[in-house]
Write a structure and sequence with these properties.
Blueprint lengths: L5 E7 L2 E9 L11 E3 L10 E8 L7 E5 L4 E9 L2 E4 L10 E9 L2
Antiparallel strand pairs: 1-2, 2-8, 3-6, 4-5, 4-8, 5-6, 6-7
Amino acid sequence: TLSGSTGYYTKIGKMWHFQINIANFSNKTANANIIIQGLPFTQAMSTGVGSVTTYQVGNSNVMNIVTGSTTQFVLRYAVNASSWANLKHNTLGGDPNLHLVGAYRTT
């Protein structure tokens, strides 16, 4: 549950461009993936679609947004040069903020 989130988007043809700011996470203890749900358009393919700038997330590695031909995002971070892991609630710091930007092709 979030209480400080805003988002903006523009859809041009089949391309959806977005900017989402997320803050005030109520759950910072669950060992569950952070998933952004309820996007207005279904993604046409499973791929990385954007980038994340973070503050107090408990992880300073490069992050990206991964889709799955659905209406949700999963946030991932680079573990090393050849592998990624999903960002989980219990890895968040004291006052986490996420800024997501990107685009994807819709169905």
